[in-house]
């Protein structure tokens, strides 16, 4: 494989640093903690790390509100700590992608502090300012993803500023040339420091209709539509605008100055998400890859998976998708998709969580594995007074926010706070009891653990070109089976998933001439409940996987 192409089919391990490992006992994960635990990531044999924001920030949105793009927040450490992490990662053959939050800053950023003070400031137009409507109300009906109007009044300018997320996250005006240059300088700063690319935050929100036209009225959804719910509105003018392509082209042109550096865009869940992935990644002067959390809007049944596979194949033909089933913004897939999920969020069924891992790691494209997914962690169920996510605080109890997927990594079953933080302080979010039993140390000891399963599977994907970069084709299988093939250089791999809680015989045509590979497979021609088989022609060389 060409070095420049390392990202095609790569697996990235997503680190949410606040919850990964705390070295200094303040209850908040940090870069030194990440350094101490980096061998856990290396042992997964992933290709790289996507590190969520560690920049100086008032932490209203836990780092996605950047106050200084080129400094590390003291709660995470220092630039020297960052360099140590980068060096340790590179020594272990791991690439490092950092978050580039290009659409907005914190209101504490000096650019915004100056911009809001005066219309004469050098950065006056680096944010999106608009005069009020004649009656004094906001200039249009745009809504914030996190609730309420997307406009906030600034008395000093007697104008509103736009914020797609929190009011303390003012939207940057990337159509202003100097503002875009400043963002590119930030990107250059990190590339010069040695990072291998960026995860680009919320790229559907990078630009907006310059005339600031209101969105059309919300779809009537069988009665009254809650006027403030972003998810139920149409978004013709506030997001997904063609002008964003020019911004992305500039970012790509910069990346191309650094051999091997890549971009991973985050695409919103709005309708057409896969078409947008194709559009954002479908040309060599645009992004390398992009992911969307859209699939999580659906259930986990056979027709949905068949549609997902069709989307995957179609998107691969036009661009390059990356798969993310769990991350810091959504309920963990082990719970969200769990069969027989209950009001309490369902129990994590080891067999089912492994099936999810197998699917994530075998769909065509690249993949993001979110910290704890390799352990099969379920969503943490938190009480109202434990919630820290402003999004959850606004919408509780209909939506409990994102903290259930952001609780600390459980490292050691028997230790206080499961070894996430030295014992004298409590972590910023609790460690759920259900996670303790799934802690890393216990899974290290168990040769049959989910962690060991994940390692074997990732190692196999690395070794097997058909799995990493091969084409995909659906398989016509009887219910409740679902499957597809992957093929590269004449080598075909067959993947079969049993979506039911009962053992199912493998169809005869699959068994003939095939063998389970690397410890995965059906025994005696039967696929166990939620089982997964990975089959190769019997003549093929079967690599030894530890
Ligand atoms: O689909 C969406 C809106 O239509 C959302 O998923 C949206 O794309 C997402 O909320 C953007 O998330 C990213 O930016 C946020 C931050 O809070 C998230 O943590 C980050 O992943 C604002 O920076």
TrEMBL record:
UniProt cross-references to InterPro entries, sorted A to Z: GH, GH13_cat_dom, Glyco_hydro_b, O16G_dom_2
Q: Which GO terms describe its molecular function?
A: hydrolase activity
Q: Which residues form the Glycosyl hydrolase family 13 catalytic domain?
A: 14-406
What are the alphabetically sorted keywords of the record? Hydrolase
Name the protein family. Belongs to the glycosyl hydrolase 13 family.
Q: What is this protein called?
A: Alpha-amylase family glycosyl hydrolase
| Taxonomic classification | Bacteria, Pseudomonadati, Pseudomonadota, Alphaproteobacteria, Acetobacterales
């Amino acid at each position: 494989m060409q070095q420049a192409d390392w990202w095609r089919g790569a697996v990235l391990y997503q680190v949410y640093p606040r919850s990964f490992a705390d070295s200094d006992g303040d209850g908040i994960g940090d870069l030194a903690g990440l350094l101490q635990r980096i061998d856990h990531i290396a042992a997964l044999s992933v290709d790289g790390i996507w590190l969520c924001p560690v920049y100086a920030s008032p932490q209203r949105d836990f780092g996605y509100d950047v106050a200084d793009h080129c400094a590390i927040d003291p709660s995470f450490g220092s630039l020297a700590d960052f360099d140590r992490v980068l060096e340790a990662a590179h020594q272990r053959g791991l690439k490092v992608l950092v978050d580039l939050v290009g659409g907005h800053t914190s209101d504490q950023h000096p650019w915004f502090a100056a911009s809001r003070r005066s219309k004469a400031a050098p950065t006056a137009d680096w944010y999106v300012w608009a005069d009020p409507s004649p009656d004094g109300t906001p200039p249009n009906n745009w809504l914030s993803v996190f609730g309420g109007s997307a406009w906030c009044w600034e008395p000093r300018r007697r104008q509103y500023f736009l914020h797609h997320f929190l009011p303390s996250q003012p939207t940057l005006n990337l159509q202003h040339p100097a503002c875009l240059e400043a963002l590119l300088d930030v990107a250059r700063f990190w590339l010069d420091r040695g990072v291998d690319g960026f995860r680009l935050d919320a790229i559907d929100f990078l630009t907006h209709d310059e005339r600031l036209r209101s969105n059309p009225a919300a779809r009537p959804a069988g009665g009254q539509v809650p006027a403030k719910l972003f998810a139920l509105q149409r978004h013709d003018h506030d997001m997904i605008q063609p002008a964003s392509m020019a911004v992305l082209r500039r970012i790509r042109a910069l990346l191309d100055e650094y051999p091997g550096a890549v971009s991973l865009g985050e695409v919103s869940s709005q309708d057409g998400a896969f078409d947008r992935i194709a559009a954002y990644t479908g040309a060599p002067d645009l992004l390398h890859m992009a992911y969307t959390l859209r699939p999580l809007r659906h259930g986990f049944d056979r027709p949905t998976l068949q549609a997902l596979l069709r989307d995957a194949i179609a998107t691969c033909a036009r661009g390059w998708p990356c798969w993310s089933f769990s991350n810091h913004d959504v309920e963990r897939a082990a719970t969200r998709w769990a069969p027989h999920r209950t009001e309490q969020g369902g129990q994590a069924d080891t067999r089912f969580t492994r099936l999810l891992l197998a699917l994530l790691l075998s769909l065509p494209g690249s993949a993001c594995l979110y910290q704890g997914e390799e352990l099969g962690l379920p969503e943490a169920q938190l009480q109202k007074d434990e919630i820290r996510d402003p999004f959850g605080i606004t919408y509780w109890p209909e939506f409990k926010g994102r903290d259930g997927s952001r609780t600390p990594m459980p490292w050691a079953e028997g230790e206080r706070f499961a070894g996430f933080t030295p014992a004298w302080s409590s972590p910023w979010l609790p460690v759920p009891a259900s996670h303790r039993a799934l802690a890393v140390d216990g899974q290290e000891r168990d040769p049959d653990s989910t962690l060991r399963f994940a390692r074997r599977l990732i190692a196999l994907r690395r070794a097997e070109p058909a799995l990493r970069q091969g084409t995909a084709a659906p398989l016509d299988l009887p219910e409740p089976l679902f499957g597809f093939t992957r093929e590269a250089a004449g080598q075909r791999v067959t993947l079969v998933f049993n979506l039911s809680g009962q053992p199912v015989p493998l169809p005869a045509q699959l068994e003939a001439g095939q063998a389970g590979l690397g410890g995965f497979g059906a025994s005696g021609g039967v696929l166990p409940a939620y089982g997964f088989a990975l089959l190769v022609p019997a003549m093929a060389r079967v690599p030894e996987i530890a």
